[in-house]
Specification:
This protein is α/β, with parallel strands linked by helices and 307 residues long. It has helices at 42-56, 92-100, 109-120, 180-183, 185-192, 201-222, 232-237, 239-252, 272-286, and strands at residues 7-13, 17-24, 29-36, 64-68, 72-73, 78-79, 104-108, 129-134, 138-144, 147-148, 226-230, 262-265. It is built from 9 helices and 12 strands.
């Protein structure tokens, strides 16, 4: 490995897995490990995983970035992820700081993914794009003018709750017809009775079509021509998924300033969650926290998480 000036600890709390890794200053994952998300005593398992990764690092990390599903309170730095019922207002950032002796920064995993793609993925040098994660859930982040949008309550980017089928299926958010109600891994598994990774060609095509429909709906609001899509579902579905998404865009995105609008796969692939979390740590180490970093009085974030 080439000599670099710094490296970062990256921790990702997913619906089915816990990830930890060390990422260098070029965005390369130099150490990684993972375990299934346990049913109980999650913190003890995560602590062991993180310490094991730090011990294998080629040099000591300088900061820790954490990507996690919500709800979360970025002021108190606590999380209450829906997929870990035992964590209610769990002080994840403080716990990791105590275990690692590293300064830590916490944000939604899908928003972190967008930052990672801009750092060293499919959106390098692009100031306006949408990042989308299709995994166990559907999450996203919006970069506009080079900054990650927060919104009034820190919830900008939740493309999973764009309506793609008016009056359609119930969504866990309480609405109906949301993108997440059709395209999340959990929704596909509930519909088909089997792993979403074994979906039929028709399901794959429909998933791409609906993602394209959602992107076509938000692109005129944001004046953007790019959506970077990652996550286990989208990346495993591959070319048929992306072809269906872009065909739907071609039929719906007709405004002149949307010419060339496209959905492209994450260049970071399976490394995207870790690189995204590391991008948070990188900004913290630079002393320039991302726009996603909360300031005093920032309200709690809404449920999210797509891994």
């Amino acid at each position: 490995m080439s000599v670099v000036s710094r490296c970062y600890l990256a921790v990702v709390i997913g619906g089915t897995r816990l990830l930890a890794g060390v990422v260098d200053d070029t965005g390369q994952v130099v150490v990684r490990d993972r375990i299934g998300t346990p049913q109980r005593d999650v913190w003890s398992a995560l602590r062991r995983l993180v310490l094991r990764v730090i011990a294998a690092a080629p040099e000591p990390p300088v900061a820790c970035g954490i990507g996690c599903g919500g709800p979360m309170n970025p002021v108190d730095r606590t999380v209450s992820p829906l997929h870990i019922p035992s964590w209610v207002d769990f002080p994840l950032a403080d716990q990791l700081e105590g275990a690692t002796q590293l300064a830590a920064v916490l944000d939604n995993d899908a928003k972190a993914m967008a930052l990672g793609e801009r750092w060293c993925g499919a959106a390098v040098g692009i100031d306006d794009f949408v990042g989308v994660v299709i995994g166990a859930g559907v999450g996203g982040g919006i970069v506009s003018g080079g900054r990650l949008l927060r919104g009034r309550m820190g919830n900008a980017g939740h493309i999973g709750h764009v309506i793609v089928e008016p009056g359609g299926r119930p969504c866990p958010c309480g609405g109906t017809g949301c993108l997440e109600a059709y395209c999340s891994g959990s929704a596909i598994e509930q519909e088909t009775g089997r792993s979403p990774l074994r979906a039929s060609a028709a399901i794959v095509e429909r998933t791409g079509l609906l993602v394209g429909r959602a992107v076509a709906s938000v692109a005129p609001l944001l004046d953007t021509r790019l959506a970077v899509v990652g996550g286990t579902i989208a990346l495993s579905y591959g070319e048929p998924f992306f072809a269906a998404a872009n065909a739907e865009l071609a039929g719906r995105a007709k405004l002149s300033f949307l010419a060339g609008l496209q959905v492209v796969p994450s260049l970071l692939g399976t490394a995207a969650p870790l690189v995204g979390a590391a991008s948070l740590a990188r900004s913290l180490a630079d002393g320039t926290p991302t726009p996603a970093a909360a300031g005093p009085g920032t309200p709690p974030s809404a449920p999210g998480g797509a891994l």
